[in-house]
Amino acid sequence: MRKQLLFFFIIVTLSACGTRKNTVSTTKAARAADAMANLKSKELYRFITAWTGVKYRLGGMDKNGIDCSGFALILERDIYGVTLPRRSKDQAEVINQKDKRNLKEGDLIFFSFGGNEVDHVGVYLNDDFFVHASTTRGVVVDDLTMPVYQKAIVKTGTLK
């Protein structure tokens, strides 16, 4: 009887581990990691990895603190060799608008969280993920399908 209970316990434990593995692989964090792993540009991967977690600081332009438009400016300059204006509102004026369903790696996504004007920018990666400097979490890869972002998107596109 003891051997049967031990056998039953081992089977239940192993099957629980197998079930957990499937659950973990579908989490937002795992999907964000997949988006990073699927980047076409390895330079972009290294850039994001180096900046992830840098705290938000309005007007910041370095790893002591950075804001969203500063992060987009530095990323686009260092990875794609293009120059953006400093403010997100002005950055939105220099892009060719495109439908968000057609976004490609490196395209810009503009948001309005405080009214009608653009007040935030992020850079599209793939599979509905983007990177940005969040006011509360610093530089982070986020899921564009989250309702908070879907409601706030005002413009998407690529540089002219």
UniProtKB/TrEMBL annotation:
Q: GO terms for biological process?
A: proteolysis
Q: Report the domain of life of the source organism.
A: Bacteria
**InterPro entries to which the protein is assigned, alphabetical:** Murein_DD/LD_carboxypeptidase, NLP_P60_dom, Papain-like_cys_pep_sf
Q: Which GO terms describe its molecular function?
A: cysteine-type peptidase activity
- SUPFAM superfamilies membership: Cysteine proteinases
Q: Which residues form the NlpC/P60 domain?
A: 38-160
Signal sequence span is: none
| Keyword vocabulary terms for this entry | Hydrolase, Lipoprotein, Protease, Signal, Thiol protease
Q: Which Pfam families match?
A: NLPC_P60 (PF00877)
UniProt keyword Lipoprotein, yes or no: yes
List the PANTHER family: ENDOPEPTIDASE NLPC-RELATED (PTHR47360:SF1), MUREIN DD-ENDOPEPTIDASE MEPS/MUREIN LD-CARBOXYPEPTIDASE (PTHR47360)
Q: Which family does it belong to?
A: Belongs to the peptidase C40 family.
Q: What is this protein called?
A: Probable lipoprotein NlpC
